[in-house]
Amino acid sequence: MTSNQYLLPTSPDIVPALGVLGRAQCEAVLHRNVVGRLGFTLHDRVNITPVHFAYQEGWIYGRTQPCGKLLPILRNRRVAFEVDEHQDLFDWNSVVVHGPLYLIEPETSQTEETTYAIALRLLRRILPSTFSDTDPVPFRNQLFRIQVSEISGRFSEHGGSSIPARNAPIRDERATPEADAALRANALLAVNHVLPTTASQVQIDAFDGVIVLTGVVESPLDRIALEREVLRARNVRAVVQQIETAAPEQRRPEPPEVARAAIRQLDAGSPLTGANIKVVIEHEWVRVEGTVATSELRDEVIRRLRNVDGSRGVIDRVHVLTAATARR
Length: 328
Fold this sequence. Notes:
Layout: E1 15-21, H1 23-31, E2 35-42, E3 45-56, E4 59-64, H2 70-76, E5 78-88, E6 91-104, H3 115-126, E7 142-147, E8 150-160, H4 177-194, E9 201-207, E10 210-217, H5 220-232, E11 239-245, H6 255-267, E12 276-282, E13 285-292, H7 295-305, E14 314-320, H8 323-327
Helix pairs in contact: 4-5
């Protein structure tokens, strides 16, 4: 039987039973598998890549190259991780994990097993030669782990008692698949005309008559030239521009990066004694809430947050404590 041939029910009366996996069942799937799919997004573009992994006590451990996909992941950290196993078309389990991804650096400890040592021990159960002279993939020398913040699973098995009622099909009124495919082909020709080399990594999507440009180019001039050429392409009427330049200072920070930058600004310099400050990143604005002891301290908080890279400005919701408020 080839990989795309499955054992099918021999009778129309035999239907699959579909259901939800509990936490323990989801973890069992993670324990007995070693290949999963890592999913992440950058500027609304979805990316999925297969990785080897090991699971232990609420953490997924893996290894990869210290470049490429890690750079956009670390800007947001939020990832999805999926594992599935199947015996035939209607006999399968699928588990999806959501959580933040962290890099694992070598650590030294004389008293307890470090995170690095735990990851290496688990991964060597899969591939005993991991990080040795006989490692077949020595270039995958970056360890990482994913915290299992959310976990869910579904299963299908033979033995269902009845076929669920059919729902009315959903109509996709805006769909123009053939026209979108032609539109993308026109935009692709335009991109190849402006940037024929592989030095720039540009992705093109087309749906509902709209071209979406993502990826990285070498300079702002390349970005402008590419957009202009795509707009000239046949039948292109709208473009969503999400291309970044290779220079780090030119890229648009992700909201978690803006939040981290706000924390760094608040912690920089002299301590903000008597301040109880929280920040909220909302549509690229830094909203600051909380209480301070004096109006001068509030001014200092706002001044620091105005220096946050990637924010459109500061929304001030800080209150100065009066004597009566302080007593309450």
